[in-house]
């Protein structure tokens, strides 16, 4: 058996070698790259979220946004920039730093017929309010036997960022994905962000919307179709971002990008990866995953969160229990964040999250290369 | 026919002890109609008595010290309180027979709170409470049948057997909530919706002395005040949070003051009229756009915290007996009506018999109605959604969820 050394590759080198339809040439937060009109236009994830909220606020008067700094500060990460100026105090509400209280208020407003968007500055702070998300929002429709729907969206950045250390870096996909009564979505690119947020706001049920801070400044092409006001991405459907035949990579959020990067590198060695962007954590699109695995016979899941009881663990269990198992030529494997609280020093932080080289390494192990 | 009125001046109790209600004067003229006991006009009598004020916090004035109770209202309050009482006692019985399982937190002793509050608001207002909720489910429009069938977990239950004792809902009534204190921010959210929609409605948010120390309640005080939400906070102080007396749980037991910058009042929660007048006063305060107000109702529960608690390890039987004999809300109303010739003993007995029958019928229904169908197991996960598959206990068990 040959063991291949994979040398670390810089992000810039990698991104310069990726295929045409990517617009990543610009470092994050430096505005949008100019793109030819035939592709619509380039919109970064932050603006996609902003426009989605703006359009939904305009469309339905019952929709409103509350959270810390969402109004006069334009949003801690500027996701709600301009909305307070446009819609005023009634619909864009700055809250005190009291997550349990304002999350409960948001749920109560949903009980009484409004359609709140409740922002957590990061999902780490949702732990202060998690009782309201689970016990008051998720379970109420069931406990009331359908008498009391809860049309609410909880949103905010999830998972690791850069240099924010342990208390500000946790991924909550597995925590919320565990609970019946919630829909949990995790967009990767601008199309996902726009379409899933619109779908979430229009959904009559509690939706946990997991954004990613490092993706906010990343621009993507949005076609004219996507820019239509009624464009929604259905919750519960994964998207195959790249077709392949040798192995299936299943991922969500920022790691989808890493999977595509890894796929490009592997393509040069003749390995064609199929990359599945989950888009939704709960309900999990098992059909798409199974169809892909039955085609390729190999599976690697990639996530930023911790391995134990995580998203990848669930995917592997489902594949074991379903028809796709019989098509596996090798055990399914997970690439995850390292099982430690997030350290601060850059070198340590870099080694705490899945890197492209980890994905490439895992693919080659699974393919016995 | 002239409605028979009772002019009542009432003494509102102060501090932690519960004083029996004193009655001044009586009036009234009769217009005998078929079926009504005839009333005797009596002369007004006065006594030398200076009524004590209700306890106020940051309020210049409190609710009026006189209230008018019509015969119709009196009978209605009597019947409703008696229904709650009998319903809770029947639940006690069924629980001991193991026909009701799990949690069962009974409200007997506190009836004047639920009934009095409802007397001060309307059904288009909103209300949310904690887990001692059967009484409120009734006053908010539920029927005894569907309440009892929910306790016994049957398909005819108010939540089709899916919720149980702590999760009953009706229009503008948001339960029944199991997590101590969580209902208070929820209630403020409902109030926010009322203000947002400009419908002049308000939300009554109840909690107990045990919950009163919850952080999220103080967070809610803050936001409600900042945003001037139309919310009435009501602390039902029944002296014990589970087995912990107020002195042992709270550095300050003046719950009506705990809202700090929120005006508050404390009244006798065993007197349905006191509760009603205080609620009306609070509702006016909210509807005039002044923002939140806090009421403390001093009340008492005869049962333990729940059916698992005999209720005598942390308080004496003598104490329970004393409250029963001196401050029972139903007896107080009954005595008031009898001594003012607003109703006859026979009439009230007839109500008792009718209530008993209603409870018996409901219990009969609740014990014979079938349990929910297994098809219902996975339903009601999501609203307005396509049916979807739910994993059962094994990978081969595929169940369906419908909205």
Automatic annotation (TrEMBL), chain A:
Protein name: Pyruvate dehydrogenase E1 component subunit beta
UniProt keyword Cytoplasm, yes or no: no
Key word Oxidoreductase present: yes
Lineage of the species this protein comes from: Eukaryota, Metazoa, Chordata, Craniata, Vertebrata
Gene3D superfamilies: 3.40.50.920, 3.40.50.970
Top EC category: oxidoreductase
Annotated CDD domains: TPP_PYR_E1-PDHc-beta_like
Cellular component GO terms held in the UniProt record: mitochondrion; pyruvate dehydrogenase complex
Domain Transketolase-like pyrimidine-binding: 43-218
Entry keywords, A to Z: Carbohydrate metabolism, Glucose metabolism, Metal-binding, Mitochondrion, Oxidoreductase, Potassium, Pyruvate, Thiamine pyrophosphate, Transit peptide
SUPFAM superfamilies in alphabetical order: Thiamin diphosphate-binding fold (THDP-binding), TK C-terminal domain-like
Co-factor(s): thiamine diphosphate
PANTHER family: DEHYDROGENASE RELATED, PYRUVATE DEHYDROGENASE E1 COMPONENT SUBUNIT BETA, MITOCHONDRIAL
Top-level lineage group: Eukaryota
Function in brief: The pyruvate dehydrogenase complex catalyzes the overall conversion of pyruvate to acetyl-CoA and CO2. The pyruvate dehydrogenase complex catalyzes the overall conversion of pyruvate to acetyl-CoA and CO(2), and thereby links the glycolytic pathway to the tricarboxylic cycle.
A GO molecular function held by the record: pyruvate dehydrogenase (acetyl-transferring) activity
E.C. designation(s): 1.2.4.1
Origin species: Oncorhynchus tshawytscha
Database matches in Pfam families: Transket_pyr, Transketolase_C
GO biological process, any: pyruvate decarboxylation to acetyl-CoA
Summary of subunit composition and partner proteins: Heterotetramer of two PDHA1 and two PDHB subunits. The heterotetramer interacts with DLAT, and is part of the multimeric pyruvate dehydrogenase complex that contains multiple copies of pyruvate dehydrogenase (E1), dihydrolipoamide acetyltransferase (DLAT, E2) and lipoamide dehydrogenase (DLD, E3). These subunits are bound to an inner core composed of about 48 DLAT and 12 PDHX molecules. Interacts with DLAT.
Subcellular location: Mitochondrion
Reaction(s) this enzyme catalyzes, per UniProt: N(6)-[(R)-lipoyl]-L-lysyl-[protein] + pyruvate + H(+) = N(6)-[(R)-S(8)-acetyldihydrolipoyl]-L-lysyl-[protein] + CO2
Xref: SMART domains: Transket_pyr
Automatic annotation (TrEMBL), chain B:
Occurrences of domain Dehydrogenase E1 component (ranges): 79-373
The keyword Transit peptide appears for this protein: yes
EC nos: 1.2.4.1
Catalyzed reactions per annotation: N(6)-[(R)-lipoyl]-L-lysyl-[protein] + pyruvate + H(+) = N(6)-[(R)-S(8)-acetyldihydrolipoyl]-L-lysyl-[protein] + CO2
Protein keywords: Carbohydrate metabolism, Glucose metabolism, Oxidoreductase, Pyruvate, Thiamine pyrophosphate, Transit peptide
CDD domains named among the record's database cross-references: TPP_E1_PDC_ADC_BCADC
Cofactor list: thiamine diphosphate
MF annotations from Gene Ontology: pyruvate dehydrogenase (acetyl-transferring) activity
Top class in the EC scheme: oxidoreductase
Function per UniProt: The pyruvate dehydrogenase complex catalyzes the overall conversion of pyruvate to acetyl-CoA and CO(2), and thereby links the glycolytic pathway to the tricarboxylic cycle.
NCBIfam families in alphabetical order: PDH_E1_alph_y
Name of the protein in its database record: Pyruvate dehydrogenase E1 component subunit alpha
Lineage of source species: Eukaryota, Metazoa, Chordata, Craniata, Vertebrata
